[in-house]
Amino acid sequence: MAKYRSYSVEFKRQVAQEYLAGETLHGLAKRHLISRNLIRIWVARYEAGGFDDDMVAADIMQAQEARIAALERLVGKITLENEFLKGASRAAAQARSATTSVIAGPPASPSKKDAV
User: What are the distances in angstroms from CA 21 to CA 7, 99, 112?
Assistant: First the structure.
């Protein structure tokens, strides 16, 4: 369950405009079931230009760039892990294909006296 409710920029802009048009804080708070202090914050932000489309677009762009950077880091990490595992896989395949003997050392060469 979400700890906080979130409101759209359009709703915040609408509430701020209603307040500036002459609606009372108490009436707006009661009708929309939000605190009067929250309305004050929204009005101050509206007057400062915080709900302009350019500001909203810049916030969205910044969030998307942060997400892209995080995903690029994840891709880099996964690529490194993949290369490491490919190298380990190649090393394991070479070790299994080599001739093995109970006796340690290089494989025995055939003796010349057996060739006669």
Answer: 20, 89, 110
CB-based contact 17:46 (threshold 8 Å): yes
Pinpoint the alpha helices (H) of the chain. 9-20, 25-32, 36-47, 53-97
**Residues contacting 17, CB < 8 A, separation 6+:** 46
Report pLDDT digits (tens) over 92-116.
766 555 565 555 656 666 666 655 5
> Domain residues of the chain, as ranges?
7-51, 53-96
Model confidence pLDDT, tens digit, residues 74-94:
999 999 999 999 988 887 766
